[in-house]
Amino acid sequence: MSTANSITEKTVKTRKVEVSPDWCAGCGDFGVLSSLNKATLDKDVKSHEMLIVSGIGCSSNLPGYVNAYGVHSLHGRALPIATGAKLANHNLKVVITGGDGDGFGIGVGHFIHAMRRNLDLTYLVMDNEIYGLTTGQASPTTMKDTKTKTTPRGNVEQPINPLMLALVSGATFVARAFSGQPAHLSALIEQAIAHKGFAFIDVFSPCVTYNKLNTFTWFKERIYKLDDEAPDRDPTDLPDAMSTAMEFGDRIPIGLIYKVDKPTYEDSEPVLLDGPLVKQSLGIKKALFEQLLEETM
Length: 297
Ligand code: SF4
Description:
Shape: globular
Radius of gyration: 19 Å
Bound molecules: iron/sulfur cluster
Strand content: 15-25%
């Protein structure tokens, strides 16, 4: 676990750390990192107020590149860890970052259950439609017929539609972005962080090394901004959001797809009515607490 120690006036103004990203030159994840930093700085989120949790994959290295609390956890397990952290300390801004394989493959069960609970979390998926870290296998969002290391004759499986999955699972903020449009992405992250409830952004973040189909150019030729072409859309209209989420072909919308306000898990769970767990008494004697600590640490 990295910590936001040495918080000074200077460091709270920047998220920079001494470690540089080990991503390939041109990887889409650079745009997500800079957009996240810009959004959180613009929202004046201090380093010691933010926790970034990730799973495993190229994009899951992100917490190590930001001056904030961070957990680089297990494959597909970022959401349960983020859930625990948020329940323990509601004051933290908890952001989860990872890839499509981590989130929609190994971690898909956690993805669904975190959304139906409407925990106040922000989940950014760097969706490159391939397993990058393991050098180019088909992922849950790899398009049909795509040739990869594991599908040399073309992918026979239908890809997951993450936006539809989020909409039917109860996410209260659903958006799509493109790392090649960092200002647009940063503005969406600001909205997601401000949203009280589960906010999910599926970010097209091209893998320039192993996905030669879904490139920056491929996306640029297809994406359009909902704000430009449908400024009067009602983002609380679920059927319209579903119809928008289904559009994936010659034209692909980016922007806010859906947003509603509903009670969060933290606000609904009776055990948490007395405040975050870190502020509550354990309700056991000190001697027993120390004995438990001894046994478990
Ligand atoms: Fe990015 Fe792909 Fe390189 Fe991983 S392998 S760092 S996803 S370009």
